[in-house]
């Protein structure tokens, strides 16, 4: 199976403009594609973007059962491991989390069934605005018209007010609700540990960012086989807007994370969650934990499905560096406070990347 990162070398593409196609899935099923339509040709903005670190690396693993252990020594060691993973990688795998493997497989299967609905059925859930409770579509509907991604998606705002999900296919809503509740439980425990690793009270993050009303966004992504995976992109390099993002996928690789300036392809442990730090955690920790840049690459044989669950503070929260982590002399605030809902809206209107995080970052000049 050919899996490739985008390259800057010129290769043949089709000049066909799929104006009547409403999804990449439909495009691949209705045309005998040998080359990609030219609008999908992706040019990296960073010369080093295509570099892939292929050497064997040790991905941090967090044992959730130890993180929630009643034995102080075990929990303390797990918190130290989490702190190191967030500082050194901004990424880790969570194992022994208590979520049944059948549920992980079930939500991937249910998402695949959603993508198999007819285009007419999916139009019912298209949505119009960034924070519509239910929104599905493809990169053909991008607002800026500059980047066309080889991806179809369905996004659900499942918290804070109420759970939202499409009523088709049958059973999707029920399994999505169970899955999202499980993910919410894991994130709340991770953030308790983060509070302690930052030297704060166990419930400091929970209270300060109003996690009882925390925002949670469910995204299922379909990356169909691509005839020229080295030319197109599933998702360009970007960081996430929340605190932590949980991700699972089918047995098809495609997630790459940036570590020490190189791209690492992730091959997850069985029945694990992939977790990356996101913008609000970098801001809240006053830069101790850095948001993770990651991307989705393609292959030319089989479809990849990933389920990303972004977990943030309350949409109404104004997020800045935790006051207890700031002092004007040694640790001045490195980020300007910003309302989280406004942050999400602004990020979604920009091209993918860290543009909004850069906007709130305070640059210090040496005296």
UniProtKB/TrEMBL annotation:
Keywords: Iron, Metal-binding, Oxidoreductase. InterPro entries: DIOX_N (IPR026992), IPNS-like_FE2OG_OXY (IPR044861), IPNS-like_sf (IPR027443), Oxoglu/Fe-dep_dioxygenase_dom (IPR005123), Plant_2OG-oxidoreductases (IPR050295). Pfam families: 2OG-FeII_Oxy, DIOX_N. Residues 213-313 form the Fe2OG dioxygenase domain. PROSITE patterns: FE2OG_OXY. The keyword Ubl conjugation does not apply. It comes from the Eukaryota. GO terms for molecular function: metal ion binding; oxidoreductase activity, acting on paired donors, with incorporation or reduction of molecular oxygen. Belongs to the iron/ascorbate-dependent oxidoreductase family. This is Fe2OG dioxygenase domain-containing protein. It comes from Ilex paraguariensis. The lineage of its organism: Eukaryota, Viridiplantae, Streptophyta, Embryophyta, Tracheophyta.
């Amino acid at each position: 199976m050919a899996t490739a990162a985008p390259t800057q070398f010129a290769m043949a593409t089709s000049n066909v403009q799929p104006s009547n196609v409403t999804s990449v899935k439909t495009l691949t099923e209705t045309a005998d594609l040998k080359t990609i339509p030219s609008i999908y040709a992706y040019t990296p903005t960073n010369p080093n973007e295509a570099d892939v670190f292929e050497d064997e690396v040790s991905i941090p693993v967090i044992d959730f059962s130890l993180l929630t252990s009643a034995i102080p020594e075990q929990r303390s060691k797990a918190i130290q491991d989490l702190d190191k993973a967030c500082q050194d990688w901004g990424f880790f795998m969570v194992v022994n989390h208590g979520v049944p493997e059948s549920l992980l497989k079930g939500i991937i299967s249910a998402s695949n069934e959603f993508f198999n609905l007819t285009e007419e059925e999916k139009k019912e859930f298209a949505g119009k605005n960034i924070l519509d409770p239910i929104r599905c579509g493809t990169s053909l509907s991008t607002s800026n018209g500059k980047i066309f991604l080889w991806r179809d998606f369905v996004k659900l705002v499942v918290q804070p007010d109420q759970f939202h999900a499409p009523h088709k296919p049958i059973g999707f809503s029920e399994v999505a609700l169970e899955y999202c509740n499980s993910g919410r439980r894991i994130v709340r425990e991770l953030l308790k540990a983060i509070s302690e690793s930052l030297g704060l009270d166990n419930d400091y993050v929970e209270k300060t960012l109003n996690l009882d009303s925390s925002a949670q966004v469910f995204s299922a992504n379909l990356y169909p086989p691509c005839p020229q995976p080295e030319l197109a992109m599933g998702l360009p390099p970007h960081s996430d807007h929340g605190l932590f993002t949980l991700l699972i996928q089918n047995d098809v690789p495609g997630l790459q994370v940036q570590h020490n300036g190189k791209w690492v392809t992730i091959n997850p442990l069985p029945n694990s969650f992939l977790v990356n730090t996101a913008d609000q955690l970098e801001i809240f920790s006053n830069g101790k934990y850095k948001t993770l840049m990651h991307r989705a690459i393609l292959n030319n044989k089989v479809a990849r499905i990933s389920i990303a669950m972004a977990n943030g503070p309350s949409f109404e929260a104004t997020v800045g560096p935790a006051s207890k982590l700031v002092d004007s002399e040694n640790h001045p605030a490195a980020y300007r406070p910003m309302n989280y809902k406004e942050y999400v809206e602004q990020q979604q209107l920009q091209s993918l990347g860290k543009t909004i995080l850069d906007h709130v970052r305070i640059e210090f000049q040496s005296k």
